């Protein structure tokens, strides 16, 4: 049975200190790992938050994000070296950069990107300079070199090694000035997921990421991929989204795959969930999906 290693990554350097930094504690207290073979693998504290937009890059906290990404990658590296499966609890979506850096040090990673937004802004178009709205662009090499060439490794991802899954912001974001996803990146919006069914769409996404020269893929979850009616505890709300059942099916399929090598959860804001109801429901959904991983015994495969 493969052991999970929980890393707390409460960084809001790419967003703002709105409450997202409380995600790790809220989910763990809600029973995220109850009954699962899991160990606590530490907490990576971010550097101080600077609310001033960087003049050179147009991004909030770019140097802090770069530094934090390296330290988070080190923590993931220790977990991977120990043969455990890393589960990173953010934080905002920029924690993805550290996760990918750890995998990029080891080869050519893929990414299943579950997010209600495509997060493909450039700094000139992002109104607040928030890197949490541009992390997929940064990970594929588009943006300031400080964040696209971490440790001189160039893009953390190739376009063809990404599946963007379940987003529903394409028209709205294009009007706001976000660049479109590149043609080489496989994009499956919410309508596309629904057209084939979440389970089938997830299986096809995993199959795509499991072939070729990739050295495994990670799964990124921004909880705003869920329907706003059932998950309002996020900072940027929009109508529609996946159901709890659909998300559990997608995550269970992805995490059970032998090629999956890591998982992160971001953007849930416990301060918008005062009675803890959403924390408990999210923890239950994630616990069930992670149990699919531990049941498969993928360690060493």
TrEMBL record:
Residues spanning the signal sequence: none
Keyword match Manganese: yes
Keywords: Hydrolase, Manganese, Metal-binding
Family annotation (InterPro entries): Ureohydrolase
Pfam family, one: Arginase
UniProt KW tRNA processing keyword: no
Family statement: Belongs to the arginase family.
Protein name per the record: Arginase family protein
């Amino acid at each position: 049975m493969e052991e999970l290693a929980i890393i707390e990554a409460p960084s809001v350097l790419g967003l703002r200190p709105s409450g997202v930094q409380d995600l790790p504690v809220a989910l763990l207290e809600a029973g995220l790992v109850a009954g699962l073979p899991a160990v606590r693998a530490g907490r990576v504290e971010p550097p101080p938050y600077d609310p001033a937009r960087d003049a050179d890059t147009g991004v909030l906290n770019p140097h802090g994000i770069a530094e934090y990404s390296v330290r988070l990658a080190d923590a993931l590296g220790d977990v991977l070296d120990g043969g455990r499966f890393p589960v990173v609890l953010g934080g905002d979506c920029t924690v993805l950069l550290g996760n990918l850096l750890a995998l990029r040090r080891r080869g050519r990673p893929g990414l299943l990107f579950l997010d209600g937004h495509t997060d493909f802004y450039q700094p000139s178009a992002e109104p607040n300079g928030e890197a949490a709205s541009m992390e997929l662009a940064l990970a594929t090499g588009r943006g300031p070199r400080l964040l696209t060439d971490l440790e001189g490794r160039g893009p953390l991802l190739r376009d063809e090694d990404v599946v963007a899954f379940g987003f529903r912001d394409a028209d709205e974001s294009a009007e706001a000035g976000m660049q479109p996803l590149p043609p080489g990146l496989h994009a499956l919006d919410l309508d596309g997921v629904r057209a084939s069914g979440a389970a089938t769409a997830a299986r096809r996404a995993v199959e795509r990421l499991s072939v070729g020269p990739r050295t495994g893929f990670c799964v990124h979850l921004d909880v705003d991929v869920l329907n706003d009616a059932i998950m309002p505890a996020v900072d940027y709300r929009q109508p529609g989204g996946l159901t709890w059942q659909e998300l559990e099916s997608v995550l269970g399929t992805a995490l059970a795959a032998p090629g999956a090598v890591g998982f992160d959860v971001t953007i849930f804001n416990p301060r918008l969930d005062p009675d803890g109801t959403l924390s408990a429901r999210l923890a239950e959904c994630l616990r069930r999906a992670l149990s699919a991983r531990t049941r498969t015994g993928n360690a060493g495969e």
